[in-house]
Amino acid sequence: MYILGENIHIISEKVKEALANKDAKFFQELAVKQVEAGAQALDLNLGPRKKDGEEVFPWIVQTVEAVVDVPLSFDSTNILGIEAGLKKITKAQPIINSTSAEPERLEKVPLVAKKYNTRLLALTMGSSGIPVAADERVNIALEKLIPRMMEIDFPISDLIIDPLVLTVSGCQEYCPHLLEAVRTLQYAWDPPPAISVGLSNVSNAVPAERRPLINRTYCAMLMGVGLQMMIGNPLDSKLKETIRIIEERDDSTPVGRLYLKIADHIAAMEEPSIDDVDMDDPEQAAIWKTVQILLNKVIYADAYLGTLVVV
User: Fold this and answer.
1) Digit-coded pLDDT (tens) for 20-73
2) 2-232: what CATH class?
3) % of the chain surpassing 70 pLDDT
4) Fewest Cβ atoms nearer than 10 Å: which of 8, 14, 235, 290?
């Protein structure tokens, strides 16, 4: 799994404060920590920065590149700020996160990506928002995103399609559609572009103590349909362990066997089976209940685990 570390994100109060104070040490320590934990790239989400983007983006590039060598992903709608940052890149091929199929962004952003030889993350979202059905998301990639790249001779090998994770709290019924979008996109072009998702979005607006379990369970399901790249938290050791279990097919523990069964059922376009679960084991029971909400079989509520202890 190729992980773009998500932890430099403006939603964090610590990141906001460090950015306001131009605290280079904070960002350098957080960058190094993520890379040492296994991040192969770093997503830099500093927000739009409409007033100071052309100053802040170069500063963050120089700050972070001083201590790590991995690709930097510019996660912003501020294309002028991104371009200012790209001019300071001296190490690995960067990533622009993101364009969409909205006409103005699809016109401008890919041209900047081509000019600076970046990879480009493209969202399956148009002017009317995020489509619900998997085939509608795939169609945006096939009919708008990929044709635009071909029009400007942008390498498909540098394109990353993001079919968009929606939160289980409020958009629960759409969680299964992402699985099918990821499955289908791998066969939608030859050779196919890379596919990535923002994993942690699935647990947005969920109580903090529930989020890691939802994230890693959805990750196992997404790996079942072939996901190999994501924006996620490399500092979450249990998420990384789940990834390792599935990649190495390590069935040496009961929980590991359950995650493998879940991934295998999803891969075979089957529903995971309760026969694979020891419901007397609180951890397995919690995983099973999480699968049920992610498949929209049971209505999500913050207390969906009941009295179960999340391990």
Assistant:
1) 999 999 999 999 999 999 999 999 999 999 899 999 999 999 999 999 999 999
2) alpha beta
3) 98
4) 14
